Amino acid sequence: MLDPSSSEEESDEIVEEESKEVLAPATGARLSPSRTSESSGGLQPSSRSSSVRPSSPSPSVVSEKEKEELERLQKEEEERKRKLQLYVFVMRCIAYPFNAKQPTDMARRQQKISKQQLQTIKDRFQAFLNGETQIVADEAFINAVQSYFEVFLKSDRVSRMVQSGGCSANDSREVFKKHIEKRVRSLPEIDGLSKETVLSSWMAKFDAIYRGEEDPRKQQARMTASAASELILSKEQLYEMFQQILGIKKFEHQLLYNACQLDNPDEQAAQIRRELDGRLQMADQIAKERKFPKFVSKEMENMYIEELKSSVNLLMANLESMPVSKGGSEFKLQKLKRGHNTSIIDMGEENENQLSKSDVVLAFNLEVVIMEVQGLKSLAPNRIVYCTMEVEGGEKLQTDQAEASKPMWGTQGDFTTTHPLPAVKVKLFTESTGVLALEDKELGRVVLHPTPNSPKQPEFHKMAVSKNCPDHDLKIKLAVRMDKPQNMKHCGYLWVIGKNVWKRWKKRFFVLVQVSQYTFAMCSYREKKAEPQELLQLDGYTVDYTDPQPGLEGGRAFFNAVKEGDTVIFASDDEQDRILWVQAMYRATGQSHKPVPPTQVQKLNAKGGNVPQLDAPISQFYADRAQKHGMDEFISSNPCNFDHATLFEMLQRLTLDHRLNDSYSCLGWFSPGQVFVLDEYCARYGVRGCHRHLCYLGDLLERAENGAMVDPTLLHYSFAFCASHVHGNRPDGIGTVTVDEKERFEEIKERLRLLLENQITHFRYCFPFGRPEGALKATLSLLERGLMKDIVTPVPQEEVKAVIRKCLEKAALVNYTRLSEYAKIEENVGRLVTPAKKLEDTIHLAELVIEVLQQNEEHHAEGKEAFAWWSDLMVEHAETFLSLFAVDMDAALEMQPPDTWDSFPLFQLLNDVLRSDYNLCNGQFHKHLQDLFAPLVVRYVDLMESSIAQSIHRGFERESWEPVKSLTSNLPNMNLPNMNLPKVPNLPVNLPQMPSFSAPSWMAAIYDADNGSGTSEDLFWKLDALQTFIRDLHWPEEEFAKHLEQRLKLMASDMIESCVKRTRIAFEVKLQKTSRSTDFRVPQSICTMFNVMVDAKSQSTKLCSMELGQEHQYHSKIDELIEETVKEMITLLVAKFVTILEGVLAKLSRYDEGTLFSSFLSFTVKAASKYVDVPKPGMDLADAYVTFVRHSQDVLRDKVNGEMYIERLFDQWYTSTMNVLCTWLTDRMDLQLHIYQLKTLIRIVKKTYRDFRLQGVLDSTLNSKTYETVRNRLTVEEATASVSEGGGLQGITMKDSDEEEDED
User: How far is residue 1127 from each of residues 13, 468, 1064, 1083, 1260, measured CA to CA in Å?
Assistant: First the structure.
């Protein structure tokens, strides 16, 4: 702010007297052109005033400590006086604002969370998680709250956010809402329950937990009240707020309030007019003395004067627009025509600005209340009386009727008139009783001439009695109230004489009328006249007290109004009236000289100082009281004599401190009431906008550098204003720019750049969880604005990108360093750490790294709204961040012993996250991870292959071929270490169980049916587990992944091939060792070997088939081998069965016709049958064979799992059986079968046919030509035997019979 010049009373040597002035010098002290230091507050401290600085004792007596104490007390006293003076200016801004209003469109700030509240919230959520509340919740919600509690509420970043004052209840609620949205979206759909319903239900439960046991209605009422106070404040609330801001005591406020007459708008408007006149004088004096601030260009000096005058002109226009009254003239004066001190209107335009009588319009409201009448004795008590009332020229009103014995009414009549001296007539009537009377009889009347100064309380008035009324002492009690219009500032009777008006000394009724904010007139009125008789326009006049004038009789207390070429002398009848008139006219003239009543001058000059003023007005009492307490210097000081730039800087700084310490999370934004006062102060006292915002930026930057959270959007607004001002690109045109503003702007710009770069570097901690909302985006935009060289030329994007890239590189180091400290990785340095512990720590750190990356993506992606390439830089940041982690990861892996596999979960954890991230997949760290683990995977596969090969070899050597069902856990253990991986807590991915090298104890329970051997099942399980593990690695590099798959498929093919071949050999060996008679029973081992083939076939489909490129390359090869082997095994088994049948037939061959054994056997049977009951020969043999067949079928059907192989076996077995029988019968075509041969064969053929039909052999196979040949031969033989033997067949026949008894 520019320095005010001295007033007209100041002499040329006043500069030498500057040091004598402490606060507001009476002679008008001049400030230095440069901006004073902040510590001085814009006020010139006294260097010699004994009233401020106590006399110091000699140095020999006073110690250094006492000197420091004296200096401290002196500084505190100076600071107190500065704040008191500043408070006077602030009070005037609040009392009569004419430039600013409290904004209603500002964003409502939320209640901030304190440290104590945060701890309370943590306790409430912990209580919920412990089940100590009555809130019913499902497991999903509890898990969500648990995650929110661990991740958000317990985060040190949230604690830091609370400490910075930037954390509100709304922030915590929005973070939880965002946190649960993904969880709810991932839940399965439930019929009749939408996801939105679940979300709203969860948020209601969250609010219940957050609120705790508080009554929501009380909280709502409290929030509503606080929100209302945040929106708009009354004048009393604003006074109270700035008392707290400036440290003003209540009694000091009351003294200043009363002495400044803040409740008197006329006094405040007059004060503004005087201030604006003073600023115009100051502008003229600066132009005259050429004492300008130092501008960046010399041409700006003249522009500066125009700016000052233009700003005053705008203020005058604003003041002029303030309403004076509800009605009245729209007459307004030209601006900027006011001269020095005397405020003379330019004479060239005097006529066109001159007031006419019609411009002065007054409207009065009158209330006439008729109470009662006394002295009415002549009328009968029951006679009716009433009153009428009227204002001259207006309507007439009548009271109710009353009896003469009680003439009381209390009736009020309301009137409106334009007469300052109206005539109010009140008449008393009684009703006429005569028949011929036309009118009621008037008993008396009274005529009053009230003024706004007349007494308002009821009074008795003597009535003028009519001629026919015998009661001569009638009195009426009336109350007449005449309201004072807003545009009438004072009225009363004065004696007056002037040169141009009121040329004769006479007592007249005067009204001081305010036509507009700058136009006042002294008007004299006659009774019952609306227009003034004469008027005097007060512009340019100076009013003051004067001594009694000789030769003028009438009037006791004199004062005059003086103008160049004119003097008007007034006189009132008492001193108090004179003081009131002078005060009112002093406000109206806008003069700089303040009239002092002679009685007060005498009091000031009196030694005793106790001169009673019985007729002084109440305002003078308050002024004296303020002077007594030392407040007069603050009230009477001229605002133009202060450096308001420095004063405002202090006011704004203290207001910001108060704002940051209130209960709202303001982020540096002022409340509407504070904005209103600061706006009004700047406009009224001429604080330059650039200076205001530079100070604001400096204060905000200082708070932000000390850890407070400041909204970057707020910084952006102020910075943009200052930048447009300094670079000459203001929306309202080019303005003056001082050197100080430009230098300070450059300093602020550099500080702002450093702050923004630091915030971007610490974006996780400056904007935790993306709060405040949009802050990161605004910070990036502001940084771009700060890098601009001027206001027009945009900064190249590559330059902005380079700055942000550098910040994010630093951010990676900052984030990883803090993460490592949090994970306590560094605490193990210097101590002996086991590899397992190191790996466990690294996996935990990897979890945290993944969490940080996910939070960056979730909460800090808003930067792409500012710059499209923000995402690319965040990818680079993530790679840098991961590269730092890679150092610790490599060190941990190097510690691991060779051929150990505990590090695979680390790969899976990282790879599953990286491969799902489009930007990081196959990035620098991802490739490094692959390079690190690829040799480990290859080595693992090599060892597994060797182990499985050994397993096959050793397993088959000692294979018992018992089915797995009968085993527990006695499968052979391998030498390779078991892969028991540590469980990684809280991982977002499901780690597959690594394959073990021994059969688990639960394996037998899985299979309900007999299966393959222990060796084969162990083999298949290992191969499957190995492939599953490698598949679940999800190797990202396609070529290596294909190579791994190809190798594992080839390995599986080789292993299964070896298994099949070893089983085939064992099968043949096993069959050779078995019996060849009908006692043969299919052993379990044979079934187990078949099951091995079945499992091999099913497993080969999964383990050996290639889905990519080569269609079933390995699968087709092994499949063919399995099919061929199964075919051979079936052939071998059928051959075994055929061998047994051939043994049976060999026994029957002994009964062939023509052989010695046959003849001997027949003779023996016939001879024996005469003496004993000989058993039926041949049935035991048939039954033994049938039993063998049935048992073999049941065992194979029950134990072998391959239905297709069983059907093939039975088909081949049946066909071979019929072929053998057919061949045997064919060889005996020429021989008749022995009866016993016939019976045995019939039994065998029929049972075989039926049994194989029951086993599902197809009719086409059953009824083959071979079977028909056998059947026909046996039928013929049966017919022949029945003829020759008679009943020798004993019921055995080839015919089908349901009654035939099956003999097992």
Answer: 132, 157, 10, 19, 21
Instruction: Quote the mean pLDDT of the chain.
Output: 80
Q: Which tokens belong to 702?
A: 């200082």
Whether 1156 has a pLDDT exceeding 60, the answer reads no
Q: How many Cβ atoms are within 10 Å of 751's Cβ, its own excluded?
A: 17
Decide: helix, strand or coil at residue 401. coil
478 bridge partner residues = 370, 459
Task: Tell me the pLDDT tens digit for each residue of 507-549.
Answer: 999 999 988 888 889 999 988 888 898 999 888 899 999 998 8
For residue 697, the one-letter residue type is L
Q: What's residue 1019's pLDDT?
A: 87
SS3 content of the chain, % helix, strand, coil (to 5): 55, 10, 35
Other CB atoms closer than 10 Å to residue 61's CB: what's the count? Answer: 8
State the CB neighbour count (10 A cutoff) for residue 489. 20
For residue 835, count CB atoms less than 10 angstroms from its CB and return exposed for 0-12, middle for 13-18, buried for 19 or more.
middle
Q: For residue 1214, which of 1146, 1124, 1265, 1138 has the smallest C-alpha distance?
A: 1138
Helix, coil or strand: residue 983:
coil
CA dist., res. 444 & res. 471, Å (int): 9
Q: State how far the Cα of 1229 lies from the Cα of 1223, in Å rounded to an integer.
A: 10
684: amino acid identity, one letter: R
DSSP string across 444-482: EEEEE---TTS--S-EEEEPEEPTT-S----EEEEEEEE
| 384-391 and 488-497 beta bridge pairing | unpaired
Q: Which amino acid is at 964?
A: V
The set of residues, in sequence order, having a beta carbon less than 8 Å from that of 250 and lying 6+ positions away, is 243
Burial class of residue 983 (count of CB atoms within 10 Å of its CB; 0-12, 13-18, 19+): exposed
Tokens of 1: 């702010």
Per-residue burial over 34-51, b if 16 or more Cβ lie within 10 Å, else e, is ebbeeebbbbbbbeeeee
At 1221-1264, the pLDDT tens digits run: 999 989 888 888 888 888 888 889 988 999 999 988 898 988 99
Q: Are strands 488-497 and 566-572 parallel, antiparallel or unpaired?
A: antiparallel
Reported as type and span, the H/E element at residue 93 is helix 64-95
Q: How far is CA 171 from the centre of its chain?
A: 4
**What DSSP letter does each residue of 712-731 carry, written as one string?**
HHHHHHHHHHHHHHHTT--T
